[in-house]
Amino acid sequence: MTNDHAGGAPLPFVDERADGPGVSRIDPLDPAASFYQLLAKLRAPLAMRDMMIAPVRACYRGEGVTIDPAELPKSAAELYPQIAVSTLAIPSDAGPIRCQCFAPPPGKTLRPMMLYVHGGGFVVGRSEDTAYITTRIAAENDVIVVSVNYRLAPEWPFPAALDDCMAVLRWMREKGHEIGGDTARIVAAGDSSGGNLAAVLPIRASDEGAPLQAALLFCPITDFHYERFASFERLAPSGLVIDMAFMGYVRGAYLMKGEDWRAPYASPIFADLKDYPPTLIITGTADPLIDDNRAFAQKLREAGRQATHVVAEAMPHGFYFFPGVLKESEAAYAAIAKFLPSALAAK
């Protein structure tokens, strides 16, 4: 798919836009404008949130870090050369959404599809970061995975990222056959903050009359009241992968209004889950979100829904990210291979 409009010039992908409502601007008519203008000369960037996000994004991209290639695990392309990776530019009201499509070799029938949402605390990340996960799932489960690059906070707070994911889901429903997908068999999946968005998608999709068939959630955030969970209070203060300081920042960056913490489209644990699809949740016991995930699985069961929670002993947030590093990740992918066929066969 191309990314051109009628004038011929390419439009920016939505995740490249930095003109969102979360950007601080100085109004020259503001009575305090002169004060803000002086601050802008004394420090850069002006807004505190911008001061914090710039180094986070630089570190997340590994800027300034060097590593011997021999120390790196094999890439997804090396491990699964049969999976074709292409770029989609999916239209939306906010502009084209860049997605990566991970597809097994063409077959005689349409394949199930998975909408995958990368993590990164709503503020960092891209589909390339989760290529091993999406490639492996496509290869081992014969599904077409569409991995979405949504708008990031704080420039684009709630519900921009969810709106982007829904635009991609609608496209998959309407035109997924163009990439060889079965538009009636779609799974929502994601990790961490992407797991939050993937956990919300079945609720919003059901509200729009197009329910999803299953949900695959890697250590999702399902409740933004983190501190009420004992595992978060115990593990987050000095967490190595995610910690309390970062989680507090991303909550404020993504949800700019405290009232949104309980909104079902933000914290799905507060939603009516009576129509939720079969769900697989994967978490490690060293993850600060383990109690959150346990609570969500229990809420699903209380609503009469099918919820399987795979718990990996002593494993941290994101333990399934790299091939050959932790044997416990193999059990996670085996659980996925067991879960998807039955979930996709259910009517």
Automatic annotation (TrEMBL):
UniProt protein name: Alpha/beta hydrolase
InterPro entries: AB_hydrolase_3, AB_hydrolase_fold, GDXG_lipolytic_enzyme
Taxonomic source organism: Methylocystis borbori
Any GO molecular function: hydrolase activity
Keywords: Hydrolase
Domain Alpha/beta hydrolase fold-3: 114-320
Domain of life assignment: Bacteria
Leader peptide range in chain numbering: none
Keyword Hydrolase part of the UniProt annotation: yes
Pfam families: Abhydrolase_3
